C-alpha cells in the first residue's frame, strides 16, 4: 500500500506517460491509414516504413536538466516536445512533402512547428522534415492535447542519420573533424542518390502503364 501523497504522484506520472503513448497510438493509426489507403488506390505508397518511440523517463529528465527546464510535469509537458516520436520513411523527396501536407491538413491535428531540414540541411549534412503537432487524446475524464514530434525523411536520409547518430554518441558529441568532413560528403552523396532516384522514378511513371510490345527474352543457358 502506497502512502497517499506518493500514490497521487504515481498516478499522475502514470497518466502523464500514458497520454504520450495514446498520442503515439493515434498518430500511428493516422499514418497507417494514409499508407494503406494510398497503396490500395494507387498501387504505390509514399510511405515506406513507420516507427515510433517514447522517450524514457530518464531521457526526459536528462533533457529537462540539460536545458534548464522546470523539473515538474507541467514544465516538462510545456517544454519537451519530443517525448512521443514518430519517424516516417519515404522513397522519394517529393513523398516527404506529400506526407507532410496530408498530415498537417487533418482537422484534429494542430501544427505547432515545421522545420524543413531538407531545403536547409544542418551544417553536418542532416536532412529531414520535422513536425511538432498537438493531437487531442480522449481520456476517461478529460480531453488533453498532447504533442508529438514527427520526422519525415527518405530512405537515404534515414540511412545517413542512423549512422551519424551512432558516431555522434560513440564520440560523445565530439566527432573528429576528419570524420565530420566524411559524413558531410556522404550526406551529399545520399542527396544526389535521392535526386537521381526521383528522376528515374519520374521517367518510369511518364512511360505510363502501356505494356511494352514483347517482354525481352532472357538468353537460355
Ligand atoms: P533522439 O535520440 O533521436 O531522440 P531539441 O530537440 O530541442 O534538442 P532541436 O534542435 O530543436 O533540439 O531539435 P531538432 O533539430 O528538431 O532535432 C530533434 C531530433 O532530430 C533529434 O532528437 C534527432 O532525432 C534528430 N536530429 C536532429 N539533428 C540531427 C543530426 O544532426 N543527426 C541525427 N542523426 N539526428 C538529428 P534527439 O533528442 O537529439 O535524439
TrEMBL record:
Where is the region Disordered?
207-221
Outline the extent of the RelA/SpoT domain.
Answer: 52-175
Q: Which GO terms describe its biological process?
A: guanosine tetraphosphate metabolic process
Question: Per UniProt, which keywords does this protein have?
Answer: Kinase, Transferase
For molecular function, the Gene Ontology terms on record are: kinase activity
Record-given protein name: GTP pyrophosphokinase family protein
Q: Which organism is it from?
A: Cryobacterium lactosi
Q: Which residues of the full protein are shown?
A: 20 to 240 of 266
Amino acid at each position: 500500500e502506497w502512502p497517499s501523497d506518493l500514490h497521487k504522484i504515481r498516478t499522475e506520472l502514470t497518466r502523464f506517460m500514458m497520454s504520450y503513448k495514446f498520442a503515439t497510438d493515434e498518430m500511428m493509426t493516422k499514418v497507417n491509414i494514409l499508407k494503406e489507403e494510398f497503396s490500395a488506390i494507387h498501387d504505390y505508397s509514399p510511405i515506406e516504413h513507420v516507427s515510433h518511440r517514447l522517450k524514457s523517463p530518464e531521457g526526459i529528465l536528462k533533457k529537462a536538466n540539460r536545458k534548464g527546464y522546470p523539473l515538474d510535469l507541467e514544465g516538462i509537458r510545456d517544454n519537451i516536445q519530443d517525448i512521443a516520436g514518430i519517424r516516417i520513411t519515404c522513397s522519394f523527396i517529393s513523398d516527404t512533402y506529400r506526407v507532410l501536407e496530408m498530415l498537417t491538413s487533418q482537422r484534429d491535428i494542430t501544427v505547432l512547428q515545421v522545420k524543413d531540414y531538407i531545403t536547409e540541411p544542418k551544417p553536418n549534412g542532416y536532412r529531414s522534415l520535422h513536425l511538432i503537432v498537438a493531437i487531442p487524446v480522449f481520456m476517461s475524464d478529460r480531453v488533453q492535447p498532447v504533442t508529438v514530434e514527427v520526422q519525415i525523411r527518405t530512405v537515404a536520409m534515414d540511412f545517413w542519420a542512423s549512422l551519424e547518430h551512432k558516431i555522434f554518441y560513440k564520440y560523445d558529441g565530439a566527432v573528429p573533424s576528419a570524420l565530420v568532413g566524411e559524413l558531410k560528403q556522404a550526406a551529399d552523396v545520399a542527396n544526389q542518390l535521392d535526386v537521381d532516384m526521383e528522376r528515374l522514378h519520374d521517367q518510369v511513371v511518364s512511360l505510363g502503364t502501356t505494356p511494352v510490345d514483347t517482354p525481352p527474352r532472357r538468353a537460355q543457358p
